Each structure stands twice: as C-alpha cells, then as structure tokens.
C-alpha cells in the first residue's frame, strides 16, 4: 500500500511523539517543540524539524539526526507504532542502503587470521601493553596489505549501532608519518569510537586517540575516543545516556584547550550526566602510556567535577 503521510510530516511526527511517550508538544512554524529527552527541564526547549527530522535543544545544545534520537530512546525504526509501517520500512531500507555503500578498501580488509601480518600486529600491540584477544575480535582489528595501509594496524570504524562500517582507520606500526591514515574523508564530529560496544555502560572515559581507547578497553574500562582534542555537539548528544563521564585528553596544550572548551559548553547547558576531568601527571602525555589497570584506577580517583 502506498503512503499518504509523508515522513517527516507534522502528522507523522505527532504520531511518533505520542506513541513514544515524549510528552506534550506544540507546533512552532517548521518545528515540533517539546520537553528535551536529553536532560530534565520544566519548560519545552527541544525542537524536531518537521521537514528533516533533525533535532536541536536550545537549552542544553544537543543536536542530531532522527536516527540519533531513535538510538537515544532505544527505539528500533520497525518497532515505532506509526500510521504507515510499510513506508517506514522503505525509509529504513533506503537509509541502510546508503549506509552500506562500500568503502573502496572493504574487499581488501582482513581481520587477524594467524598470518605473518597478523603476528606482526599482535606483537606490536603486546609491546604497547595491549594483549586481549577477545577485544581484538570485538573491535575486528585487522590489516589491509595494500597501498597506504601497508604496515598499519587497521580498525573498521562503525556507526553508533555497530552495523555499518563508516571508514577504515590505519595506525602506523612503529615510527613514521603520517601516524594515521583514513580510507576516506568522514565526518568524525558525529562519531565516538567504539560507541556500539560501550553504549550500555553507566560510566565512560573520553580520550583523544585510538590507542588510548584500545588500552582502556583492554583493561575492561569503558572508553570512547573523539579522534582529536575537540569534542563537538553531535558527540556530546551521544554522551547524554551515560551517568558519569570522565574527560581525559592528552597532557599537552591542545588537550588542555579542548577540555577547557568542553567545560565552557557544559556550564551553559543542563545535561543530566556528571562530567569530570582527569589531569594526568606531567610525566605522562596520554592515558595510553599507563602500564596497568591499577594505575589507571588510581588516577581516576583524582577526577574532578567539571561543573
């Protein structure tokens, strides 16, 4: 049957809001206004754009796509009791098709498989204090023995649901530049890695780089990386689901500047989580240099509230 209600029409979004207990709503021009699901508030400041389905909270500052809202609400598209399920299925399939457009390196990527290349990667990981075969499998660590990816540890970077590979990130084994190589230009502002593996955790540590996050995960500490010393509104929206968030950027000028900017954002919002910062000792540049879990836990005890 063909659809008579156009997603994201006013009628479509009203039906979605009513059936997902988002509360009372009001239409303001091209926006549907209601209480923000990302923080506690008494006056509605959260808007869903009727045309695009994107959202924005004018109080806490979170922004994102309709898919990100579904993720935050733990709602699967097919389970939303809306007026025209067949059409929503088509929309979902179209979005999945777009997400699954192949990276040009997809056919060349190999997970660790006992080959000589794999052994070199495992040996290097061990030299960095990272030995956790289960984690290797969870992250799907591997290699691409081709072009700019040669002599690099390669990780597929997944979307927030862990279903689709957005790009491949290669980290140089040993010295040499560039340290990192990416399979294609990607919007890292919308990604926290590996969000799909830790999104159910209560507490999380936020770090800058891939090796920092892998090191913490190997200790069994839930962690996410921002791919740099800045954290963006789209990434902050993903953090709203955690109870306690500890920021631990690199112990350099860029890292300190990044944490300072994040603190300014927090002071102007009313996000529900408890946000902390962790300043490392001067002799340590980043959390990836810490040798064991006990030392990390000692540092985490010295975290300080950001707001």
Briefly summarize what is shown.
This protein has 307 residues and is of the alpha+beta class. It is 31% helix and 19% strand. The model is unreliable at 1-6 and 79-99 (pLDDT under 50).
Q: What count of helical segments does DSSP give? A: 10
Oligomer: single chain
Give the C-alpha Rg: 21 Å
The structural domain count equals: 3
CATH class of the largest domain: Alpha Beta
Report the CATH topology name of the largest domain: Dna Topoisomerase Vi A Subunit, Chain: A, domain 2
The pLDDT mean sits at 81
What is the count of β-strands? Answer: 15
Helix content: 25-40%
Q: Specify the overall morphology.
A: globular
The biggest sheet amounts to: 5 strands, antiparallel
Tell me the CATH architecture of the largest domain.
3-Layer(aba) Sandwich
Q: What portion of residues belong to β-strands?
A: 15-25%
